[in-house]
Amino acid sequence: MKRVYVSAVLVLAAAGCKKDKGKEPPPTKADDAAVTAAPTPEEATAFMAEIDKGLRAAWTRRDLADWERSTNITPETEAAAAKASEEAMAYLTRSIKEAQKFTPVLGQLDEATRRQFHLLRLAGQTTPDDPAKASELSKVITEMDSTYGKGEVCDAQKQCKDLGKLSDILAESRKPEELLAAWQGWHDTVGRAVRPYYERFVPLANEGVRAAGWKDVSELWLSRYDMPGDAMVAEADRLWTQVEPLYKDLHCYVRRRMSARYGADVVPPTGPMPAHMLGNMWAQAWGNVYPLVEPFPGQPSPDVSKAMVAQTYDATRMTKLAESFFTSLGLEPLPATFWERSMLVQPEGKKVVCHASAWDPTWSGDVRIKMCTKVNQEDLITLHHELGHDYYFLYYHQLPMLFQDGANDGFHEAIGDAVALSVTPAYLNKVGLLKKVADNEKAVVDQQMYTALEKIAFLPWGLLVDKWRWEAFSGKITPAQWNDRWWELRRQYQGIVSPVPRAATDFDPGAKYHVPANTPYLRYFLAAILQFQMHRALCQTAGWKGPLHACSIHGSQEAGAKLAALLAMGSSKPWADALEALTGQREMDATAILDYFAPLHAYLKEQNAGQTCGW
Ligand code: X8Z
Ligand code: ZN
After folding, report:
1. What pLDDT score does 302 carry?
2. Is 95 left (phi over 0), alpha (psi -120 to 50) or beta?
């Protein structure tokens, strides 16, 4: 988030970090000259206290202006947001430069202050020295995000569809030509509109972070995990290797079923699958095609969307249900201001950024969400996701500004999802959304298939978005290669291809929110794995003895206390300390997600026997 767990352009929220002296900026000539009058540790501590106040003022102004813009895009709100963002970036850039003079005394500071010096340099995008470029950068960032937010596809009769409407088509239509029109319309219109901004953005943003001593933006992003950037890339690859066989088995099964349903000319029975057929604009989550690939028709549907509509659920009631899960764990209710200030539904007559996000724009527990909620199960789960962010904000807002962040950014994304893993059939039955809980083997496989279409299908996508961006920022690929490389990665990791030929001048990465919003994406890959690791630990704390997929921590005060303790740490300690406090493990580990899906994996292997899988 921009401090928003999603638009975080500016914040690039600092992740937990080790005291890695190697990463401290080298002393400058000016520092050498100042050695005679070397600053004292007391001066360093006082300096950091001032920075904390300055960041609070600058980031609050920026985030309030950005809240206004995101909930009402107009030329005025855009200009105000760009100005506040420029000022905040300038303040951070100055602070990072000034902080360098304290390098010689860092070793004499208490651990918390030293850590804040470390996190300061990781705290976000900095600006180029040239004021014209600094101001252009903030305008590009703001306008690029709004371009995506305002995006719509219009036909010859000037009938327009926004992303929400196009996504409904992708989710519900079973006509390949309709699906293709929605997919292609969005990619052609919005991707191409974002391209000129991105072409300016990459060199300006790189120049900006060089002011803080980074090679390029990818180095900054990857340095926020308490280990060197290349080690983090290897870590992500290691996690992917753990889950890749399960993804490939899911891909193989889904391809066979989809090919049988649509015919080999629409979904070929071998090779990669076309991107428009999987129920989602980016083929990142496939839950919407569950009815087409359901293993055992006739079992009660794992999707309770229809029951939600029948029971006249609306966005507020869905949010209350999500909140009640957190309070069942002993966490505080959301403040009254949450209900007054949040945007829970798409307003009429205003342009807004619909992509769901969670905010604490004053960094003081003033939590809100912004979401164009639809009444369905997917959005009920997204509400748990967003409240996970808000609960993080609520439990760490007393900490210094630079500690008001997740242990790493994957933790921030994982909290709400870990809680939502406890939204099991038994829980849905308890709250009256599911009549019967079938626990026979067939029902378990059906249930797991639905969850895997959301969570396992996501994994390669979660990894490849930033694999592409690291290459774009580092210059490994040039703008002329951007689009082709995007599709190479999608083919390699997801086994997905474009349904129509794409030109090098297209810009399909720009058709995904986080690229124009400049929100890092590796966090979602990590969260997809961490949430199961957290769920397993919380279930153990709650005393659960059965299979992991059936566990719900609903009502467990013990699990809630553990969760609250993690939240309250913010980013004050390296993430491995936070993970250890919750799970007893210091490493991210995919064995929990594999344990969880063991019944489905056995079924998939049986179904795929004799098939040629892969692409
Ligand atoms: O952007 C989000 C959240 C807000 S942080 C709704 N997610 C990613 C996406 O939509 O692409 C959650 C899952 C992945
Ligand atoms: Zn999120």
Report:
1. 87
2. alpha
